[in-house]
Amino acid sequence: MSALVTLNNGLKMPLVGLGCWKIPNEVCADQIYNAIKLGYRLFDGATDYGNEVEFGQGIKRAIDENIVKRSDLFIVSKLWNSFHHPDHVKLNVMKNLKDLGLDYIDLYYIHFPIAFKFVPIEEKYPPGFYSGVQEQADGVIGTERVGLADTYHAMESLVDEGLIKSIGISNYNGGLVYDVLNYCRIKPVALQVEHHPYLTQSNLVEFCKKNHIQVVAYSSFGPQSYVELNSEVAIDTVPLFEHPIIKKIAESHGSGITTSQVLLRWATQQGVAIIPKSSKKERLLANLKIDQALTLTEEELKEINNLNKNLRFNNPWDWMNMKFPIFA
């Protein structure tokens, strides 16, 4: 099992989990089940991933076979942008719980600080980016006038009702994190952001540490996931797996160490939690045991940090014809 970190509400969360983004529905249940057998306890899902029914089937199988108890697992999901209105927040989490087959979610994030137009669950789920046929034809994302504080206070009510244990925020910049701390009644336990050597976000990470908010990295391998999505920026960027400095550091730690392990250890050694995805047993085990595999020197950490280009691959500014400047 992964090392544990204690969140600001006292709950313990694994430092290494399995990300569920882009796990195909037809294999999701088996991948979750097999990961639990290997020792994974943190699973990071979301409304928008569209695989929570199968995600829940994998959990149920492991619990039914007495491999784990529900209390052994740390299950994560995310409120999608279309459900930001306070009247709709609970609708989303109840759908998450039904699909997962669970009574509560350990950590529930606001996925993006952007409110899309509401789409009823019976019309389309997950809603994706468009609220209707015309919007899709025009390539325009419909939005609603909903303040982030209103959405957040509705999330706090979910904690009060016992539907979720913890609140998280995702894809928030520093100013938005600071703002949350000024209006929240229940403090967010985690901030999930894109984080890799090309986008170290060191000031944001430091600010979160000072305020006891756990930083969780997604896209730890940088452009890797976005090449598959035909991102021009990702395609034109040197893959971190092939970067000379990352390769040099991996080689210096012995023949069994890979560049992917160096990238993951760079994050965890600085206290950042990770949720890499893999379908291969050997890689899943290597990711889970990353803290035991190697320890980077201070000089190596510095070398990797110096690769920062403030290069973001998941940027709402590039979504369709809309321009959301949350990272501008």
UniProtKB/TrEMBL annotation:
Binding site for substrate: H111
Active site residues according to the UniProt entry: Y49
One Pfam family, short name: Aldo_ket_red
Occurrences of domain NADP-dependent oxidoreductase (ranges): 22-308
Family under the similarity heading: Belongs to the aldo/keto reductase family.
PANTHER family, A to Z: ALDO/KETO REDUCTASE (PTHR11732)
Designated name of the protein: NAD(P)H-dependent D-xylose reductase (XR)
Organism of provenance: Maudiozyma exigua
